[in-house]
Amino acid sequence: MQKKNYDLSCTKKIGSVKSGDNTLCQSDITKELIQLNEKDEGNKIERIVDATALFKAIKKQIRLIPNPCFCIRKANENSAFFSLLLGLKPYYVRYKCQRGQKGKHLGLNVLTKIESILIRSFNYWILKESDSKLKDKIDSIRNRISSIIKNYKNSNRLKLFARGSNGILEQHPNLKLDYFKNVDTNEKAYCLGWLFAEAYIRLHSINRSGEPYYRLGVGCLEDDFILLQRFSDSIGLDIINNEPRIEKYITSKGEIHVFRRIRLINNQFCNYLISHGFIVGKKKSKNIRLPHFKHRELLLAFLLGYYDGDGTMGRSRITSGSNKFLADILNSPFLNIRVSNSGSIQYDPVKKKYAVKGDQISLGADLMREMINIYNKSLLRKREFWT
User: Fold this and answer.
1) Considering 112, 128, 155, which residue would you say is the last residue of a domain?
2) What pLDDT is attached to residue 153?
């Protein structure tokens, strides 16, 4: 039986390119991935399998879920695949990415070329194919590949931002940069309190015009990772494709703890936190003050978030290096806390205010239970004692 093979430029030389641990197609890069054999029934099955393999290979490289903007940012890692699919040297995409700004424009441009080559080649394949069922299968795969690329390009209609500005949107397209512009929900207040206890803002760098770039960092123990997940979900941070760092440290007792941490470099996001009294730098813990809230519920949610960060499990005690922060809590008209004078807490009857010299205060069981009822997504191991 005589066989006819049609040369598809889009599929040449990509057989041996690998993605992760999976070989995309055939082992010999000089062979065509898709063999168009018109009459052999066995080869018809092979053609369908090979076409499906091509579709899976494309889909693997152009991942849409959960972060549609992440794959092109990884263009360097997939450079051989993209380059050979275009019929060029394996290092072509890597070379071009190094010359472009983060490879973003190049990525979309490469995608457009790939789409053009694929659709043209699949159209040619359908034109030469005689089996109607196989034509439908080829057409379906072609449309699916086209749809993937179209959706990907639509999701990447972002501007190219300078480092330290909104470039973070390329890796976190759903990030709510203005999340803390107004702390007007219990969730926002809780997150703010948790950040006051566990996070830091530091100067990341300064550009040529003297403008500072701020970096937010926050982390927690591996056992409390749910807090990091919930915070990330609240602000739209993608920790699936940008997995939090894993750190290990040894306590003074020789215990090894695993710590998970995320970093976020963005001035707009950090400036909103600063506007609520967040302190930049290493002096934050000793200088924070209690933010101003218009409603009592927001203050209670804030304190609950802070308690999950720097509170003692099984007790109503919170800890802070800032005496003024602790005094602000005791003196808040929303809370009406009454404590007896002690070595670390003194009440001034003239000013009608408490002064705190230590680093701990107790909020009381009644206030703790009220805080727990305000927001139901606090840390389970700490809230169980009060429920």
Assistant:
1) 155
2) 64
**In a domain? residue 197:** yes
**What pLDDT, in 10s, does the model give residues 325-382?**
999 999 999 998 888 778 889 988 898 899 999 899 999 999 999 999 999 999 999 9
Q: Encode pLDDT of 299-324 as tens digits.
A: 999 999 999 999 999 999 999 999 99
Domain enclosing residue 120, as ranges: 9-155
* pLDDT recorded at residue 57: 61
3-state secondary structure of 309: helix
Contact 48, 16 (CB under 8 A): no
Q: What element of type H or E holds 174?
A: none
Give dist(CA 324, CA 337) in Å, integer.
16
Query: 104-128 and 132-155 helices cross at what angle (nearest 10)?
Result: 170
Same domain, yes or no, for 322 and 234? Answer: yes
Is there a domain that residue 3 lies in? no
End-to-end C-alpha distance for the chain, whole angstroms? 79
| 165 is a domain residue | no
Reduced to 3 states, what is the DSSP secondary structure of residue 244? coil
Exposed / middle / buried, residue 61 (Cβ in 10 Å: 0-12, 13-18, 19+): buried
Give the SS3 label for residue 6: coil
Peptide bond into 66 cis (omega under 30): yes
175 closest CA partner among 89, 269, 92, 244: 269
- Answer whether residue 71 shows pLDDT above 60: no
Q: Name the CA radius of gyration of the chain, rounded.
A: 29
Number of domains in the chain: 2
Distance CA 277, CA 181 (A): 13
DSSP-derived secondary structure for 204-221? EEE-TTS-EEEEEEEEEE
